Amino acid sequence: MTLRLFDDITEPGLSKESLGTGAAILHGFALAREAALLEALNSVVEKSPFRHMVTPGGFRMSVAMTNCGVLGWVTDRTGYRYDPIDPETQRHWPQMPQPFLELATTAAEDAGFPAFTPDACLVNRYEPGAKLSLHQDKDERDFTQPIVSVSLGLPAVFLFGGDKRTDKTTRIPVAHGDVIVWGGPKRLRYHGVMPLKDGSHALLGGYRFNLTFRKAA
Ligand code: MD3
Ligand code: FE
Q: What are the pLDDT digits (tens) for 69-114?
C-alpha cells in the first residue's frame, strides 16, 4: 500500500504525483477534453493511417504508429529520423490539432515547463501483446524540452529505468486520461511499455493509444 501523502489534488480524480525532479504524472488530466481529443485523433488517423514500421535491424514493430505536426518520427531500414513527409502518403503529416497542442502545453506548464513548443506528435497504437522495448528518446535536438505522454484506452504499465539500459526499472501503471511529463534530469532515462493485456475500453475498444508530444527540431 502506497500512501500518496504529497499528491497535489486540485479536483476529484485529478492529481499530480511527482516521479522525482523533472517528471510528474498528472492523473486524469486528459479527461476534461476527452471528446475533443478523440475526435482530433480520428481526424489525424483518417489522413495518415496507422502502420507497423520496420526497425533499422529489420524487425516489424508490434506497436502501430502515425504522427501529426510539422515533423513525424519514422523508422525504416535506413534508420530513425524526424521527417516532414509521411512516407506512406508522400504528403505532409496532418497538422497538430488545437486540442492536442493545448493539452500538451498546459500539462507541461503544470509540471514546471512553461515554454514547451512541440512540433511533433507520435501516435502509438497498442493491441494486446504489443510492447515497446527499453529505449531512450534521443532523436530530438533540444533535450531541455520535455516529452509529454498521453495515455488513452486500455491501461498499461510503463517501465521507467535509469541512464543505462541495465539500470533497475520501476513499473508505473497508466490509465485512460493520464498524462506524464518527462523533462529535466529524467529526459534521457531509458523507458518502455510492458506487453498490453487483453481488455475492452468503453470508448476505444481493444486498444491502447499513446500520444507523445516532442520538440524535435
Ligand atoms: C521516460 N512511448 O513513443 S512515452 C515512445 O506508451 C514511447 O507509447 C510510450 O516511449 C508509450 O517513444 C510512452 C514514455 C516516455 C517517454 C519519454 C521519456 C517515458 C520517458 C523520457 C524519459 C524518461
Ligand atoms: Fe520513448
A: 999 999 999 999 999 999 999 999 999 999 999 999 999 999 999 9
Q: What is the CA radius of gyration of the chain?
A: 16
3-state secondary structure 27-76: ECCCHHHHHHHHHHHHHHHHHCCCECCECCCCCECCCEEEEEECEEEEEE
Which of 3.40.50.720, 1.10.10.10, 2.60.120.590, 3.40.1550.10 is the CATH number of 15-214?
Answer: 2.60.120.590
Domain ranges in the chain are 15-214
With a 6 Å cutoff on the Cβ, whether 212 touches ligand 1 is yes
Torsions phi, psi of 89, nearest 5? -95, -15
- 105 C-alpha vs ligand 1 centroid, how far in Å? 17
Residue 122 in contact with ligand 1 by CB distance below 6 A: yes
